Amino acid sequence: MTESTKKTSRSKGQMIAIIIAALIAAIGIGLWAYQLSAGFVNTNMRNLDSWGLYIINFMWFVGLSAGGMIISSAPKVFGAKGFGGISKVAVWVSICCTVLAVAFVLVDLGGPQRVWHLFAYANMSSPLMWDIIVLTLYLIISIVYLWAVLRLEKGKGSAKALRVLSAIALICAVMVHTVTAWIFGLLQARALWYTALLGPWFVSSALVSGLALVLIVVVALRKAGYLELKQENIVKMAKFLGIFMAVDLYFFACDLLTSGFPGAEGATIVAMLTTGALAPFFWTEIILSIIVLFVAFVPTLRTTSLVVCASALAVLAILCKRIQLLVGGFQIPNISYPTVLTGPELSGGGSSLASLSSSLVYVPSPLEFGIVIGVLGLGALLLLLGIRLLPLKPAAEDN
């Protein structure tokens, strides 16, 4: 097969993928419109568990956005060697994930037409408002940063100015995950959330999942012939993935020990995670994390395709952590009821799904799953359009 034929084949494959992603996104928009018209009663969220799958994904994608920005900006800030010219692709992945994080907040709102109220009647003492401001700045800075990198590549702009912008982007990447953690960590009424470790824990988890996602994307693009990347750069990223995962598990162990030490009030939380309703998610996270560490720290394994598998497992491990955090915060009631409280009536397929796990206070409805898949389709569409239309390929000298 000639090079011209290969390019034509890749182009056709890209277009097919773009069309499929667009159709999935369109279906998601249709389901969202139904949710807005029919009401949130068609979800499994209720007064006792007012956040659900949408906010889980919001947390997850805020974290996924970290890896691209940090591995792109950190080498420039500290004058270190990068990862083989993947900077532009990594930043675009970060931008796409940030857009999806915002999208999940919008679908969680019952009246998105009143978003302007957030700014017209802003409560600046609320961590929610802090997160809106930081997330907006983060998205703007990410776009400006990508523009600056592309401009410098064309011989325009200043390398010194880009380094300053890299420092700002790096600080903002850390802050956006810290402030997102404070939305939960400053709620004293929720025992699982109220911990000073939540800020650094969110940052460490973001480094794990974000770097893992970038690894998956760049290896897939190398396989598709979109870019060339030396194996040593893959190995380097795999090493960092192992280090980030070890730090994340360390924070988790510290929090569990502090909560569950004999006589501590958090023993109920530890029991809920290790042997209770959330045990499947807890032990899945632990097992997947150990596998990731094994692949990342064994030299003969991190040079194989197992690195991509380990990266996918790392992303799933952090998703399990996000599920534990959000559902666990509602799992233990924070008020006492004078009478026996029965669960809320759920409509349609929501009740059948909830019956599969009656021990959990919340299980998403089919509508919620459908909308999430639609948003993921939007993310795939943005990623593919960027790869097709933007000059994200690394220069030959970068490799």
Keywords:
single chain; 399 residues; mainly alpha; Formate dehydrogenase/DMSO reductase fold; 2 domains; 71% helix; 0% strand; globular
Brief digest:
This protein starts with a helix and ends in a 10-residue tail after the last helix. It has helices at residues 3-38, 53-78, 87-108, 117-120, 127-153, 159-185, 198-223, 231-260, 267-274, 279-297, 306-331, 349-355, 366-389. With 399 residues, the chain is an all-alpha fold.
Structure, described:
- With 399 residues, this protein is mainly α.
- It has two domains: 15-43 and 365-392; 44-364, Formate dehydrogenase/DMSO reductase domain (Formate dehydrogenase/DMSO reductase fold, Up-down Bundle), CATH 1.20.1630.10.
- The protein is built from 13 helices and no strands.
- α2 runs antiparallel to α6.
- Mean pLDDT is 85; it is low at 339-344 and 346-356.
